[in-house]
């Protein structure tokens, strides 16, 4: 599980689905992304960026040869495009409300002229994050209040550089892929998701917000088990 932007403790974001998969004998792991400050290096100008995130995920993917499904969420699709390229163990990519970049594209390739209103950007410090007051209504509106409350402590200031750094590979062009469109997502519009989903081999749509692995974990588990 490769988590999205501006969050930390990927295993928490994944725990509801991960626990259901474990009951079926499917182990999972959520690598720490350096650009989100999860490995202890300070984020910001000159801090870790996309290359370090790619290396962290690739290290996990190449640690053994067990057949692997990579679940990439949001920004995680940028990381996975490069990290999963040429790794024989990776059998399928499941892209959840995710970016599917061509070689040379970055997060900024998919955005508008102005930054999204739910982002707090610090150009001088070289970091960005989600505005706390926008977190629940934009990204977790279909999750229960306790999850929304816990999520407030799981956000992070991320290195701003990742928005502009282009990917060097596009694993989804060579590995079977499924795109999960989250139809009620308030952060990544469903129409943009459907446009990106056209690059994947198959498409599934769920009436969910940005984090279906928290709001509808059984549906996500069933999708993964099916793959």
Tell me what the structure shows.
With 227 residues, the protein is of the alpha/beta class. The protein contains eight helices and seven strands, in the order H-H-E-H-E-E-E-H-H-E-E-H-E-H-H. The strands form two sheets. Strands 1-2-6-7 form a four-stranded parallel β-sheet, with helices on one face. Strands 3-4-5 form a three-stranded antiparallel β-sheet. Helix 6 links the parallel strand 6 (177-182) and strand 7 (202-206). Helix 2 crosses helix 3. The model has no long low-confidence stretch (mean pLDDT 96).
What is the C-alpha radius of gyration, as a whole number of Å? 16 Å
Compute the number of strand runs: 7
Strand order of the largest sheet: 1-2-6-7
Helices and strands: which structural class?
A: alpha/beta
Number of distinct helices: 8
In whole angstroms, the N-to-C terminal distance is: 15 Å
Beta strand %: 5-15%
Shape, principal axes of CA atoms: globular
Largest sheet: 4 strands, parallel
Q: Detail the poorly predicted runs.
A: none
Mean pLDDT: 96
Query: Percent range for helical residues?
Result: 25-40%
Query: Could you state the order of secondary-structure elements as H and E?
Result: HHEHEEEHHEEHEHH
Quaternary class? single chain
């Amino acid at each position: 599980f490769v988590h999205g932007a501006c969050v930390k403790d990927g295993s928490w974001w994944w725990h509801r689905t991960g626990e259901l998969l474990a009951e079926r004998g499917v182990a999972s792991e959520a690598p720490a992304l350096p650009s989100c400050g999860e490995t202890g290096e300070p984020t910001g100008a000159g801090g870790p960026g996309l290359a370090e995130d790619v290396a962290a995920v690739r290290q996990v993917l190449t640690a053994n040869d067990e057949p692997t499904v990579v679940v990439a969420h949001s920004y995680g699709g940028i990381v996975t495009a490069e990290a999963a390229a040429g790794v024989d163990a990776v059998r399928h990519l499941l892209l959840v409300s995710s970016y599917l970049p061509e070689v040379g594209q970055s997060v900024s390739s998919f955005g508008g002229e102005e930054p999204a209103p739910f982002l707090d950007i610090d150009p001088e410090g070289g970091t960005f994050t989600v505005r706390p007051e926008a977190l629940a209504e934009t990204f977790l509106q279909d999750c229960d209040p306790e999850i929304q409350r816990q999520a407030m402590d799981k956000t992070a200031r991320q290195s701003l550089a990742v928005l502009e750094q282009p990917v060097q590979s596009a694993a989804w062009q060579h590995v079977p892929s499924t795109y999960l469109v989250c139809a009620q997502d308030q952060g990544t519009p469903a129409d943009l998701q459907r446009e990106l989903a056209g690059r994947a081999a198959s498409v599934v749509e769920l009436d969910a917000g940005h984090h279906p692995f928290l709001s509808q974990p059984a549906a996500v588990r069933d999708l993964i088990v099916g793959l």
